[in-house]
């Protein structure tokens, strides 16, 4: 007997069953995607006004995020009930995956009560196939050309294998007003990538027996106002962002931006703040912690932080175009940073008076290769202390690890260490992948994640040997 399992039986006839209604939460997720992906401010504003009124005041942020990502494609629903929907989405303009989460009210019109979109590591089921080295470079070149043409990238990218450059190209303008093109030796602001140089400097002092990682930083900064912080937080905890020392960016920094001319100026402004949490109990990115490491370097060596890194990091590595001179000083090869997308304006009014041990200097992709080569060749530290420096110590959000001033990532079997940096109008990334022999350096004079994207893109496709 023929059974009408998925059909309605009417007068002895089998009729197609009406498709099940899409649950309300899933409808809301898809409606947001449609409005967001349209790129139309009015469409997104209409959606938010009707369904997420609390987000209306953040419409500019959402539109900026839309320009940054190109929108999202729904790749795989995970959970779909009337009240809750989760699913995997992927950025249109990159390989980045995220998880969307939407919860709604039980009654019509089912307004959104919870909305989340969180970047996640690429799921194994959607792994990117690795290709030959020449194919990976060809794909990178095409990706960069398309990104530059769409105003998503302006900067320089370098890829080296066993110390030999196999790709190096610059795109876009270093100065839009003067129509000066970016070159491979253009100096770009590197943001937090300075932390690598600070960490190397600290480890040099550890290697020389002038510091111990287990020491509280107050052993060296004896006049520090917050005695609890100074006596509890160790040098190692500052290096791994586990000290609870907090950040210095925010309204207070903005109010005093041009008054903070030395590392000690930062200490005077922030040294009375309490700990954010008990040291060693969690990971929390702390620019202020790395600022303190710079002050420790000054106290131990009797030199300014800037003089020390020039003499002990840049010079032995052969980095001739890397520094942290004050912004008021003219650096002929330094690019102008542009924030805000296609019609962006210079980031001049956001910059600190000078870069610090936490970030803010400038470099070139070629100098970053020199740094990577010197580090791997043990010109900066002996083998044992280099391994201590770049070995993952603590887990951090996103699934990777953090060592001493270096992030350790694993992407499709390729393990690399390095650091990124980003702020309005600047972005950079360095990946040192010793087992495969690759070094990837990308710098941009536009908003994040302009440099991280090509760095991640090629790292995901290069062969493992």
Helix/strand layout:
Elements: E1 7-10, E2 13-16, H1 24-38, H2 41-51, H3 59-69, E3 72-80, E4 84-91, E5 97-104, E6 112-120, H4 133-149, E7 155-161, E8 164-171, E9 173-175, E10 180-181, E11 188-191, H5 194-207, H6 227-232, H7 235-240, H8 251-256, H9 263-270, H10 287-301, H11 305-317, E12 338-339, E13 345-346, E14 361-363, H12 365-376, H13 383-390, E15 394-395, E16 401-402, E17 407-411, E18 414-423, E19 426-433, E20 438-444, H14 452-459
Antiparallel strand pairs: 1-2, 3-4, 4-5, 5-6, 7-8, 7-20, 9-10, 11-14, 12-13, 15-16, 16-17, 17-18, 18-19, 19-20
Structure in words:
The chain has 465 residues and is of the alpha+beta class. The protein folds into two domains: 24-126, Nuclear Transport Factor 2, Chain: A (Roll); 136-459, Beta-lactamase. Helices cover 32% and strands 23% of the residues. The strands form six sheets. It has an eight-stranded antiparallel beta sheet, sandwiched between helices. Strand 3 and strand 4 (84-91) form a beta hairpin. Helix 1 (24-38) runs antiparallel to helix 2 (41-51), helix 5 (194-207) crosses helix 10 (287-301) and helix 11 crosses helix 12. It is globular. The termini are far apart.
Q: How many domain modules?
A: 2
CATH fold-level assignment of the largest domain: Beta-lactamase
The proportion of strand residues reads 15-25%
State the end-to-end CA separation. Answer: 61 Å
Give a quick precis of the structure.
The protein is of the alpha+beta class.
